[in-house]
Amino acid sequence: MTKTDMVTNIKHALLCLALAGLLASCGRDSQPHDEHAGHAGERETERPALVYTHYTEQSELFAEFPALVAGEGSRFAAHITRLADFSPAREGTMNVRLSQDGETRARFKVDAPAGPGIFTPTVTPRAAGVYGLSLQVSAPGIETMHRLGKVKVFASREAVDVHQDEPEGEISYLKEQQWQGEFATEVAVTRRLRASVYATAELRPPGDRAARVRAPAEGLFAAYGKSFPVVGAKVKKGQRLGTLRARLAVGVDLSSLRLAVERARADARLAGQNLERLQGLLADGAVAAYRVREAENDAGVARAELDAAWQRLAQYQGGADDAGVPVIAPIAGRIVSVAVAPGEFVSPDQELLQIAGGDKRWLEARIPEAAAQRLRQPTGAWYEVKGDPRELRVGDNARLITAGGVIDPVSRTVPVIFEFEETGITPLLGRGMDARVYTGETIETLAIPRSAVIDDDGQPVVFVQTGGETFARRTVTLGLRGADYVAVQAGLQAGERVVSRGAYDVRLAAASPAEAGHGHAH
Question: I need a surface site. Which of 6, 160, 285, 307 has the fewest CB within 10 A?
Fold first, then answer.
């Protein structure tokens, strides 16, 4: 047994128990049950059910109840969905009113739902006739009246004669399923959409806010300090990012480098001692001054050679971080790519990493030659990052850098560049993507959320809610695509309500035999 079968059986049991129980309703006009009311379970099931789906700005009502008979109770199963987030009303009150000539003839109230989203008032009309039926709901975030129009109260069970059109569609998707999953609907209405053309695009830093850091010399690339450059790290201008250490030449090993250090140290020590001796002789007038200057120069060269010998040795035995050729950040910004690994040998001018300065980014869109003539004055564009559409609007959150008037002779495209502030998740710079560039024209057209359209065997399909738990599959012809909405040229009428969130779940319900059939499965 599937989860949906279990939900359906529970709802069957709920309605049967409700019809058998016929609890007394509240209110001064409510009538007591007749003497058979407590034992009318089998008789109640003989009455045909009435089904209503009704919307206000705040809530959706999906109600089922047996046809109304004077003196007999009808237990309602009234499902209330909050349209703010399509969740069930978990608390609140419901008043059911029967009215004639603008005056309330009977009122029936329940003070809380029997379960999440389901109110079960019992309505026992006093006399036969035609009444206005309305259900008032008071709950957190909901203060509304569902007016269901005229309903007939029959004089007896034998007189019941109910004919109600079945809603279009054979896909059943129960309220409990809608409330538990990601689900929402939206009405198809005429909207103003901005005309756009398709373009291939990529994100990159502005021309004056990007840098490719290249190797100033050959060597082994090593981290500076304890951190190795990583994508996303912020750097400052002039910050040292790494070190290039020279490789050992042929015939050179660590022992020879250590020996060179000792020789340089001995030379530096002798040069220092010679300088001290000559300085003493100069004070006694025994030597000329130029001899001291020569000794000072020799001592300085000896110290420099010692330092160089130490640095060469340090490059290969993990000495000071300063040893080696430094790799410096030419601009401040964020590292967006690293093309070298620790210890890798690099050649002169080889690219090591890229830095994007600041939070500004460029969207460079390339429009095919055939569509370029539709461009008047580009007013923006939109693209997607992991399914999330991002819209750029010139004068709002973006700036038009250029709308090139020259066709690239190789790609046969025209470049259009927008600058914007980086926010949220941004795809890798240089990554290709699809985009739409607004041409500057606007049109009035029937439109639905893009999220309502799914690809079903290569066809664009939407699911129309024809009743509270009933849906119809529609193949549609699409037109202009916006960041959030898409135009519908055929297959849908204005005012119809489409599934804007959870369409794939409805599709799965349609594909499963257990889900097929009428939606009023209580």
Answer: 285
